[in-house]
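Hi U.,

Before I forget, here's the chain from the pilot set. I'm dumping it here mostly so it's searchable later in email.
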Amino acid sequence: MKLVVQEFLTLDGVSQGPGSPDEDTSDGFGRGGWFVPHLDEDFERLAGSWLGEADAFLFGRRTYQNFARDWPKMTGHPFAAVLNGLPKYVASHSLTEAEWHPTTILAGDIAAQVAELKRRPGRELQVHGSARLAQSLLAAGLIDTLRLVIAPVVVGQGRRLFPDGGAPAGLRLVGHRTTSGGLSVHTFEATGLPEFGTYGAEA
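Structure:
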């Protein structure tokens, strides 16, 4: 399977709490819900097409617990059958039980276990949110594709997907579109380490 990470970001790179003010208030974050005003049918259709490529999902603990709390109750939503029915994996050293079936808890060497999942047959192993997990997967060179959905807002605080001191990565833009709600959608393929050069006139 191909490992695909899907993240919602602000223009200043924040990935924390896109869905509601109380989604993730850790470290005193009080500006959640910034993504919601830009949702529209255009993006719903796009997100649905992405879900149609998934054969399994991988989550960090916090995102998993939020999804596990909400999605089993949303049986009438067009995304519910896919999210509730497909295999799910959660990377956590603290969870001992997972009630959102079918779920497998990954502990210990997460990178090695994710690499093993990628060797299994299938289309996409999708990571939704789970920014801390995404950072570690990027550092381990396991991500194949990044889908970054950027909202036209600056929140000025919050946890960023690409923090200072994070792992360097080379990316190639393979797709781009905008939605009527103002979202800018970028699809990148990972290319390994970044390249560097010098700009200037030849001597």
